[in-house]
């Protein structure tokens, strides 16, 4: 008979349920996890953890990570609200039996469907690989044939050009030879007759020929120079469709409202000093405590400031940093998400604050081994600050971890 695990822990938000089950020295390969919308089982012989959930969850989006001796399960709620408890009452045995049977039947059907899908996917991948190989071979054959055809055409063209050049050369030599023969035959007689009949004409022709042969005086080239070109500066305003003035004005309006939204009428705050009722003073105090490593004191300062003013995103973001140091990972995720909700609309004035909130939430998710979700936050931070080399290195490390996990799952 299996030993039931009783020392599990669980936390929740409006939309998620997180359960941590200690594996008591069991190896990751020996852990069997079964999850449906209303039933959860973690079996690692001789131990067994069963949970008949208080309300249904989305089992298609549920995830489980095994590491550091703990099985961490994240279950998205179908109805966004806080549960009174994790499981249904223990006295309803018939209902538990029916839920267990339905879960096993659903799991068997899901395994059968996944097996068929994997087989079909493998067959399709084989077909695709075969088609791709045949396509590559055909492209290689076509490339080789094209190279042969191009080389043949090139050689043929060069041969034809050489033949044409030889024919033209022979024709020119023949023509030149015939011209020389005719000139040698008729030139002396004509020149002699011309001089005898018109002596002045011959003299004039020789004078004109000498003039033509005389060198012509050309002007010297102009000296080089540089032309300075200046452009009129662009002083007209940016087009209205590219302007972010409305978002900037909305952000400034929200900041002004946040400064005015101070709740100093709470009963527990009446005994405080005047400066202790100022959320800005409390924020500076929390920042100093965080810098000295006193994280609990910083959390207390931020808690009191948030009671006074819940519209300052810096309070939630800084408290998330404290929770990260204290390993309160789920609280760090909640505070970072709250800070991002308050940092809207996204404008240049709050870009750095949004990047910090994304990094803190992504770090908490990665600490919970939810690397894919954490990578999304790091990519959002890189979108805001793409030149940050530290963020680029962290994102690359997370991608490597995800790739290694996928390779281990395939093996």
Automatic annotation (TrEMBL):
Q: Which SUPFAM superfamilies match?
A: HSP20-like chaperones, TPR-like
What UniProt keywords are attached to this protein's entry? Cell projection, Coiled coil, Cytoplasm, Neurogenesis, Nucleus, Repeat, TPR repeat
Q: Which GO terms describe its cellular component?
A: dynein axonemal particle; extracellular region; neuron projection; nucleus
Q: Which parts form a coiled-coil structure per UniProt?
A: 119-172
* The TPR repeat ranges on this chain: 355-388
Gene3D superfamilies from the UniProt entry: 2.60.40.790, Tetratricopeptide repeat domain (1.25.40.10)
- Top-rank taxon of the source lineage equals Eukaryota
Matching entries from InterPro entries are given as: CS_dom (IPR007052), CS_DYX1C1 (IPR037894), Dynein_assembly_factor_4 (IPR052004), HSP20-like_chaperone (IPR008978), TPR-like_helical_dom_sf (IPR011990), TPR_rpt (IPR019734)
Q: Where in the cell is it found?
A: Cell projection, Neuron projection; Dynein axonemal particle; Nucleus
User: What does the record give under GO molecular function?
Assistant: nuclear estrogen receptor binding
Q: Where is the CS domain?
A: 3-87
- Return one Gene Ontology term, BP aspect: inner dynein arm assembly
Any Pfam family hit: CS
Q: Which SMART domains does its entry note?
A: TPR
The UniProt entry lists the main location of this chain as other
Keyword Repeat tagged: yes
Q: What is this protein called?
A: Dynein axonemal assembly factor 4
Q: What species is this protein from? A: Myripristis murdjan (pinecone soldierfish)
Q: Which gene encodes it?
A: DNAAF4
């Amino acid at each position: 008979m299996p030993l039931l695990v009783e020392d599990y822990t669980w936390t929740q938000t409006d939309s998620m349920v997180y359960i941590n089950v200690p594996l008591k020295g069991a190896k990751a390969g020996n852990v069997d996890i079964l999850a449906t919308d209303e039933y959860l089982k973690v079996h690692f012989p001789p131990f067994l953890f069963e949970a008949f959930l208080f309300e249904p969850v989305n089992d298609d989006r549920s995830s489980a990570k095994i590491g550091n001796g703990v099985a961490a399960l994240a279950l998205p709620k179908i109805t966004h609200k806080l549960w009174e408890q994790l499981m249904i009452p223990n006295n309803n045995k018939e209902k538990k039996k029916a839920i267990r049977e339905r879960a096993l039947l659903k799991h068997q059907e899901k395994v059968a469907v996944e097996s068929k899908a994997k087989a079909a996917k493998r067959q399709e991948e084989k077909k695709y690989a075969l088609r791709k190989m045949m396509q590559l071979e055909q492209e290689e054959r076509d490339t080789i044939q094209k190279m042969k055809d191009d080389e043949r055409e090139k050689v043929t063209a060069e041969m034809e050009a050489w033949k044409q050049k030889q024919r033209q050369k022979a024709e020119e030599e023949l023509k030149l030879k015939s011209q020389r023969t005719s000139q040698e035959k008729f030139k002396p007689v004509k020149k002699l007759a011309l001089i005898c009949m018109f002596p002045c004409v011959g003299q004039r022709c020789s004078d004109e020929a000498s003039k033509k042969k005389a060198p012509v005086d050309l002007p010297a080239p102009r000296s080089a120079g540089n032309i300075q070109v200046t452009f009129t500066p662009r002083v007209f305003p940016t087009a209205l469709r590219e302007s972010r003035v409305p978002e900037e004005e909305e952000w400034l309006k929200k900041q002004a409202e946040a400064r005015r939204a101070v709740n100093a009428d709470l009963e527990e705050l009446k005994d405080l000093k005047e400066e202790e009722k100022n959320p800005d003073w409390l924020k500076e105090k929390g920042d100093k405590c965080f810098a000295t490593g006193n994280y609990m004191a910083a959390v207390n300062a931020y808690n009191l400031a948030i009671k006074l003013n819940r519209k300052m995103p810096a309070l939630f973001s800084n408290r998330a940093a404290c929770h990260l140091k204290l390993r309160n990972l789920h609280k760090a995720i909640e505070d970072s998400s709250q800070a991002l909700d308050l940092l809207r609309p996204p404008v240049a004035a709050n870009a750095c604050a949004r990047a910090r909130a994304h990094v803190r939430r992504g770090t908490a998710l990665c600490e919970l081994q939810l690397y894919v979700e954490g990578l999304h936050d790091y990519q959002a931070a890189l979108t805001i600050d793409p030149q940050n080399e530290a963020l680029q290195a962290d994102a690359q490390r997370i991608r490597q971890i995800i790739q290694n996990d996928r390779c281990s799952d395939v093996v």
